[in-house]
Amino acid sequence: MYGRDPWGGPLEIHAGDSATEDERSRNLADFDRGALSRPLDETQQSWLLGPGEQKKKKYVDLGCVIVSRKIFVWTLGTILACGLLAGFVTLIAKTVPRHHHRSPPPDNYTLALHKALMFFNAQRSGKLPKHNNVSWRGNSCLQDGNDPSSTMKHLDGGYYDAGDSIKFNFPASFAMTMLSWSVIEYSAKYEAAGELGHIKEIIKWGTDYFLRTFNHTADTINSVAAQVGIGDTSGGSTTPNDHYCWMRPEDIDYQRPVYECHSCSDLAAEMAAALAAASIVFKDNKAYSQELVHGAKTLFQFARTQRGRYSAGGADASIFYNSSSYWDEFLWGSAWLYYATGNSSYLQLATTPALAKHAGAFWGGPDYGVLSWDNKLTGAQVLLSRLRLFLSPGYPYEEILRTFHNQTQIIMCSYLPIFTSFNRTRGGLIQLNHGRPQPLQYVVNAAFLASLFSDYMEAADTPGWYCGPNFYSTEVLRDFARTQMDYILGKNPRRMSYVVGFGNHYPKHVHHRGASIPKNKIKYSCKGGWKWRDSSKPNPNTLVGAMVAGPDKHDGFHDVRTNYNYTEPTLAGNAGLVAALVALSGDGTVKIDKNTIFSAVSPMFPNSPPPPAAWKP
């Protein structure tokens, strides 16, 4: 009989074995001890232990490569950990609120610029656009020009001059010229401030109206509308007009006369300058730009052929905007027409010494260097100095252009506090009008010219200029402009901002009909509005951005509605304000546009000057 030997061999068992069960157990126990006394191989151990725990392999077979198990585990764990970490970071990035990088806050000049432009929205006449954004204004004077006695029709639109509702084309055209000049030089700054579209709308509202004041499709004309409305109240007249009455323009129901002129060289030349400058602003709108250029040419020809001052002969305008001469407008208008057309005949006129002499370029005087709605000589000299600085046309223009350039430098010297050409108040305001009322309109123009000429010099790689033997850097001019504008914005003895709506302390009783009468669905008659004129209460409507006439020569200011010498804003004044603000705005990285103004100017190849006369003994 055979049994199975657990240690790997047959075990024979004899049936006849008489050993007892106890003996067999003892024999087996001895056998087990003997077997365990020798080492067991792997197979024997597996038999003995059964399907127990197997020894872990040290390597992992990945098919194409065999790697250490330890390295494999660490690598896999690292990948999983990185994946979890990346997912966690992504989750945080998507759930935590983002903090966008904010650009630095706008400077005071940019903030004031936004407000100053809104003044023009408040001064609009005619049917207003939906986006005018002045809640207390509405359509007004839609019948202007429809007087049967007037040959000028459809004169709605344009701008009211100041706190009244008269449309004076002489200061209004100067205002549009100044605004266009500022856009030509600083369009990038307007764009950075988000106001380029707005300022172009303002200019176009003015130029569209100017094109209706004469036959702009004709090559020759013999008249132009100079004014709509009347303001003369002398002689005790009680006839309703724009000064006798105190009414919202929306409620005007009296007849508004149109003043035409047939000999108005100053007005026509200034309007020509406005249209010519605007044509450069709108050069990308070719059809409109050409329309403006054609109108400018027609007006300038009219100005040159039918000589005379528009305010002569006791005209109503002579009381408010009397023109002293038309020679400066000839110089100013011909310069702008040259830039707009590239026609050298306009440059030849602008550089005629006799014209410059008649305009007062060589004789000085107390108001020399003061740019205003009446005298554009200083502006024309700066404008023509630009030509010399950047294009240097040479002979035959160089001599007179050098004179204009030198005169401009002298004017810039006169603005500096080290010289005594002009007095200053104790608070530092330059007295360009020699202590007379309404000083700020002249100050902003000077600040604009100083900033602009400083930028001209920098763009021409010129670090400064000489005042006599002393050299001054361009930064000195900008400091002058900043101190004057800072005074206007509130850095003055009264801590008063003279721009309505800017700062916390500004005039509340502005001399302005529309701003002083509430919009309450009540129509106040000509005299019925007097109670609002004479009221001591602040204006119910804020004329945002209006620069008032300003303080007196002692830095004093009376916030009284009836005193227009302190509290009345004007279109021309605010145009200079806008120009000065945009020139000083920004962080200094955006400079002037050197080339746009020369878009129509052909390359210049200076002629050789004639040889000197033969020597004679």
TrEMBL record:
Domain of life, per lineage: Eukaryota
Protein name (database record): Uncharacterized protein
Organism in which the protein naturally occurs: Melastoma candidum
